[in-house]
Design a protein that fits this description.
single chain; alpha+beta; two-stranded antiparallel ribbon; about 40% helix
Length: about 160
């Protein structure tokens, strides 16, 4: 007598194979969800750091800009205890402007245009921090008029 369907012994093996395949699919899904959650948490942390760094950078630039007179200098440091992952640095420098090109007047005569400003003050500030073994930074730059930058007189020019 022949039977047309699977025997009870082969049926048990088939159920075991289905269970192993289902567990493999569930495991792959669980690992994918776990990695996605980890990346979402890391991205949230980076966004929080960039927001914090932006506020710190604006605060640093505000402190520099509130000074009535600036000197050419380079300074750096670390923020308070709560924000010790964040460090700051800034540079105040003089930027010399190129001379104005001559202006052509009537009759093709070239005239030198007076240049009221010969240089500007440049401020560049940087906030750096570390997260997950990598260094990030946020930078801001601005230019100010020459009246804000103290430049000592050159004794040779006075003579």
């Amino acid at each position: 007598m022949t039977t047309l369907g699977p025997t009870p012994a082969t049926r048990r093996g088939y159920i075991l194979l289905e269970a192993v395949a289902a567990l493999a699919v569930l495991s792959i899904g669980a690992v994918a969800v776990h990695r996605a959650m980890g990346e979402a948490i890391a991205t949230r942390g980076q966004a929080r750091d960039y927001t914090q760094a932006r506020f710190l950078l604006e605060d640093l630039m505000g402190e520099i800009l509130l000074q009535p007179v600036l000197r050419e200098e380079r300074r750096s440091g670390v923020f308070d205890v709560d924000l010790e992952r964040f460090s700051w640095a800034y540079v105040v420098s003089r930027v010399d402007l190129p001379p104005e090109p001559p202006v052509e007047g009537p009759g093709g005569i070239l005239y030198e245009a007076p240049q009221p400003v010969r240089y500007l003050a440049r401020i560049e500030a940087v906030v750096r921090w570390r997260r997950r073994g990598e260094t990030y930074e946020l930078t801001a730059q601005t230019l100010l008029g020459p009246e804000r930058l103290y430049v000592p007189e050159d004794p040779a020019q006075r003579l």
